[in-house]
Amino acid sequence: MAAVKALPTTVDDIVVGPRVKALREAMGMSLRDLADRSGVSAPMLSQVERGETSPTLSVAARISKGLDLTLSQLLRLDESHHVVIVSKDQRRQSGGTPKGHSYEMLTPPLPGQRVALSEHTLQPQASTGGEGDSPIHEPGSRETVLLNKGTLDLVIDGERRTLSEGDSVTFDADLPHHFENPGKTEAVFLAVTSAGLKRG
Amino acid sequence: MAAVKALPTTVDDIVVGPRVKALREAMGMSLRDLADRSGVSAPMLSQVERGETSPTLSVAARISKGLDLTLSQLLRLDESHHVVIVSKDQRRQSGGTPKGHSYEMLTPPLPGQRVALSEHTLQPQASTGGEGDSPIHEPGSRETVLLNKGTLDLVIDGERRTLSEGDSVTFDADLPHHFENPGKTEAVFLAVTSAGLKRG
DNA sequence: TACGCATGTACGTTATCACGTACATCCGGT
DNA sequence: ACCGGATGTACGTGATAACGTACATGCGTA
Prior knowledge:
three-stranded antiparallel beta sheet, six-stranded antiparallel beta sheet, 434 Repressor (Amino-terminal Domain), alpha+beta, 5 helices, DNA-binding, homodimer, elongated, Jelly Rolls
């Protein structure tokens, strides 16, 4: 009473159970095999697999370790399922700053998406980070950049790295960073941003 | 065979606590605010934040939901931190089947990597899936492909989709699939594979 | 100062997680 | 058929996760 007794529904009760069972069987293990590898008792595993109980994080972590996975990897297995095509003329023209930086999104704007692909064009002497650009990414996000044309400098956390055509770089995108084009020609690069979280 | 007595300890006791606290404070919420949003009692939240208890998956999920995250996203926040550059001539020449399919890896072969970037070349009339190709990807993996040159057909789970230059497609890579080049010219495409799990 | 109000935490109780043991079932070998 | 041995599951018990309530402290305001 006193206000709405919290949420009666929305208990999207994590459905890791079937997943665990499938993975275990795919590895050719019995409940006791996994019990040995994980340090979790076989009966417990059985209950978890059938969704009869919700394990604590620590045992869930041990289970996933027994499956040669991290817990986050295990939990990630239950997300959207489908195929989405973004044709060239459907690309979302997201950027277009006067400072010489523009980019297009190549992946659909769906929730639960693990990676975002975008193609950036940077004019000579220009740099990213102007108005309208996503400033720094959410905690935990990670970025891979492939330089298709020209030269590019990545300035991250104080340090500067230079890329030449065909190089790629992977880094933690939640560190302060931006790109600069030190050359005399346009630079074109592809950015792969993973773990793009969302905040309102 | 007694299967390696497994690990006696390995209590890499999930350290989500401080993370939860940081996120909550970053959102300007009190324990009771988060309690309302998540349906988890404030005292419980306090204990979790200080690592005095290991929450069950269901409450952990409710907590992360209160933080506008999925549980996998929350857990993913504790992973490696660095920058790695792969220069063009460092690319690992991974494929090279006689059937007209070859590709190079653009991302470093590190554990904990969320995405793998590879550039594929497919000769006219050739298709992926020959010997030496990764057959189907691990459960939960997801793939985005960007067609840079030529035309390409994606055959997935029975259905066929045709891509033209500049198109991209995102799909679940744990479904049976392969690519074919229906054209008369070489096809070049970039593949972004996420959630690359590991099996031994 | 005293008050209201918000914060985070210590308490005691209930619900349930997680264990060890024991049971039922299926399958291959002799 | 009979018997090991492997599988997954139903108990009963101890541990602990999760709750509601009550306490301690801090801060702005009257």
